[in-house]
From TrEMBL:
InterPro entries: Ribosomal_eL34, Ribosomal_eL34_C_sf. It comes from Seriola lalandi dorsalis. GO terms for molecular function: structural constituent of ribosome. Pfam families: Ribosomal_L34e. Keywords: Ribonucleoprotein, Ribosomal protein. This is Large ribosomal subunit protein eL34. GO terms for cellular component: ribonucleoprotein complex; ribosome.
Length: 117
């Protein structure tokens, strides 16, 4: 005959937060072991981009509070917030905007010089 086991906590329904598996203890007793919820990987914070951040492991929110900062980020600008692709586009966009400002300034200087001649 199979040994019967009961939930160890108060909740008696088979919900996502109440998943258990049967484990045999070293004493030969069959008990239930609670399985934690599956963690989701941290995603990119840029709007429209929902890629998981590389270099950062999946953790539950409470576990994220407990682990060190080193495990929650990667060493680059926007390390634990944006993916590498989004950071690259931001840098390129900023560079092109600055270049555009310089070109405008040069063209303005050239047009100011021409009427004098």
């Amino acid at each position: 005959m199979v040994q019967r086991v009961t939930y160890r906590r108060r909740k008696s329904f088979a919900t996502k937060s109440n998943v258990v598996r049967k484990v045999r203890t070293p004493g030969g007793k069959l008990t239930l072991q609670y399985v934690g919820k599956q963690a989701k990987r941290t995603g990119c914070g840029e709007s429209g981009c929902d890629r998981p951040l590389s270099g950062i492991k999946a953790h539950r929110p409470q576990e994220l509070k407990r682990i060190s900062k080193r495990q929650k980020t990667v060493s680059r600008p926007y390390g634990g917030a944006k993916c590498g692709k989004c950071v690259r586009t931001r840098i390129i966009r900023a560079f092109l905007i600055e270049e555009q400002k310089i070109v405008k300034k040069v063209l303005k200087a050239q047009t100011a010089e021409q009427p004098k001649k």
